[in-house]
Design brief:
By secondary structure, this protein is mainly alpha-helical. It has 8 helices and no strands.
Length: 170
């Protein structure tokens, strides 16, 4: 396998991983009420309340809030539907670098900027919305972990570009 082919294969594998994670994280925003009921039950079955009472209290509080919103103001959950949709749309954008990495490196760089933006968003909006700091750290980890495959992809695209690779399509 040539260097070009190996780089392209690696780029596409990392992009596929990133897109799968992006789609999965977006898809979980649709069934929030059911997920929280399932999560709370699973945590109780695993004896989490005895070991991590703060986590259990937070999960229960969020579930209570979602139950109230779902029962009395279901239209509010429409916002999380749009959050999910945004994840799916952003995932589609990564088809560009999958198809032609050198030409569409900007999508990868945009993704890296978006990942970096998660940190200040969580640090500013978390306290405003009374989110526990430890939960904001979990939220920030999505940006930290999300940037890793994109950084790897960007480095590989730069190496591909240095090889003078022709525009790749298909």
């Amino acid at each position: 396998m040539s260097d070009r082919a190996a780089l392209l294969k690696g780029i596409r594998a990392w992009l596929a991983l990133f897109v799968v994670c992006l789609v999965l994280s977006g898809a979980t925003a649709f069934p929030l009420v059911h997920e929280l009921h399932w999560t709370e039950s699973a945590l109780r079955a695993l004896s989490v309340p005895e070991h991590l009472p703060g986590l259990m209290a937070w999960i229960s509080r969020v579930r209570d809030g979602l139950d109230t919103v779902d029962a009395d103001y279901p239209f509010v959950l429409y916002g999380t539907d749009w959050l999910a949709f945004a994840h799916l749309v952003i995932a589609v954008a990564f088809y560009g670098p999958y198809r032609d990495p050198v030409r569409n490196i900007w999508v990868v760089e945009f993704g890296m900027i978006a990942c970096a933006g998660i940190v200040p968003l969580a640090l500013v909006c978390g306290p405003v919305r009374a989110i526990p700091f430890w939960w904001s750290v979990i939220d920030m980890s999505f940006g930290v972990f999300g940037v890793v495959p994109l950084y790897v992809v960007r480095k590989k695209i730069k190496r591909l570009e240095a090889l003078g690779a022709p525009s790749v399509s298909g």
